[in-house]
Amino acid sequence: MKRPIYCEKCYDEIEYCSELVVVFRFLKICAYHDKCYADEMKGLNGMVTSNTSLNSLTANVIVGMYFFLCIFFAIISRRWIGVPIAFILPCIRMYSWLAIERHLKA
């Protein structure tokens, strides 16, 4: 079931995944048009908005590396507090996909 996704800046509907930028801002997942995100980064809000979008290849690589490094260090140090911490970023990325990205056209 498709539901409309609206831009946080211009409040227009985002129709295609290619024009979507998803960022993590103040414990909230925000969706922007790619042009609105560029304008947002130029302004004062650029200081509080993440520079890396959650739906980019770079973010996926960072999440994967973070996950495996946390697990690796948890095994090496035998302190298992790293295992729940390792799931924080993958859960944020999965929530981004479930809440926003899957509702858009490819």
Would you spell out the secondary-structure blueprint of this structure?
Elements: E1 5-6, E2 13-14, E3 20-25, E4 28-33, H1 34-42, H2 57-77, H3 82-86, H4 88-99
Order of helices and strands: EEEEHHHH
The structural domain count equals 1
Provide the spatial order of strands within the biggest beta sheet. Answer: 1-2
| Morphology call | elongated
Q: Describe the largest sheet.
A: 2 strands, antiparallel
Query: Can you count the helices?
Result: 4
Terminal Cα span: 14 Å
Number of strands: 4
Q: Roughly how many Å is the radius of gyration?
A: 16 Å
Portion in helices? 40-55%
Q: Report the portion of residues in β strands.
A: 15-25%
Mean pLDDT value: 86
Secondary-structure class: alpha+beta
Low-pLDDT residue intervals, each spanning 5 or more residues: none
3D architecture notes:
- The chain is elongated and about 50 Å long.
- The model has no long low-confidence stretch (mean pLDDT 86).
- It has one domain.
- The chain is 44% helix and 15% strand.
- It is built from four helices and four strands.
- Strand 3 and strand 4 form a beta hairpin.
